[in-house]
Amino acid sequence: MSERFIITKDPIVIEDVVKKVERREAGAVTTFIGTVREWTNGKKTLYLEYEAYVPMAVSMLAQIGKEINEKWPGTAAAITHRIGRLDISDAAVVIAVSSPHRKAAYEANEYAIERIKQIVPIWKKEHWEDGETWIGDQLETTEYPEGKPDIEEAASGRERGADH
């Protein structure tokens, strides 16, 4: 199952993620592609940097896949999240979900991105025209005014709060 849940420094090949969930019994495949946008809250973004506590991040992505299959029986999910430097329009995350019927695929795909933001230890640093800052977790509820997050410490805090 873990080959469907990946953290990578390489550009994401969308078709490769989709192929991981294609099945004869699936009548629907939905994809979500999260890309780096140029403007956020009136600030021009030059590029982003993502970091992750990779072993736990992969484990949490697999957990999301399991949750999806429990909530929408007959579904299959694959998630790839990129780390490192990403330029404008680069894909940061690709989620593919297949299911016998489209409604479950849509719902499960939306569920996946929300859960990624809640439980997966991935952090981003925004680089703007006039500066840079670590935004914090993907819900943007944690800030790092002193600079970079302590990845190991932050991940252990996520682990304690992983079950919502």
Could you describe the 3D structure shown?
Helix 2 packs antiparallel against helix 3. Helices cover 32% and strands 35% of the residues. It has a single domain, classed as Molybdopterin biosynthesis MoaE subunit (Aldehyde Oxidoreductase, domain 3, Alpha-Beta Complex), CATH 3.90.1170.40. It contains 4 helices and 9 strands; from the N terminus they run E-H-E-E-E-H-E-E-E-H-E-E-H. Strands 3, 4, 6, 8 and 9 form a 5-stranded antiparallel sheet that branches. Strands 1-5-7-2 form a 4-stranded mixed sheet. The radius of gyration is 16 Å and the shape is elongated. The chain is of the alpha+beta class and 164 residues long. InterPro entries: MoaE_sf, Mopterin_biosynth_MoaE. It comes from Bacillus licheniformis (strain ATCC 14580 / DSM 13 / JCM 2505 / CCUG 7422 / NBRC 12200 / NCIMB 9375 / NCTC 10341 / NRRL NRS-1264 / Gibson 46). Belongs to the MoaE family. It holds the Pfam family MoaE.
How would you briefly describe this protein structure?
The protein has 164 residues and is α+β, with helices and mostly antiparallel strands. It has four helices and nine strands.
Helix/strand layout:
Blueprint: E1 5-8, H1 14-19, E2 28-35, E3 39-40, E4 43-52, H2 54-71, E5 76-82, E6 84-87, E7 91-99, H3 102-119, E8 122-128, E9 131-136, H4 151-160
Function: Converts molybdopterin precursor Z into molybdopterin. This requires the incorporation of two sulfur atoms into precursor Z to generate a dithiolene group. The sulfur is provided by MoaD.
Keywords: Molybdenum cofactor biosynthesis, Transferase
Organism: Bacillus licheniformis (strain ATCC 14580 / DSM 13 / JCM 2505 / CCUG 7422 / NBRC 12200 / NCIMB 9375 / NCTC 10341 / NRRL NRS-1264 / Gibson 46)
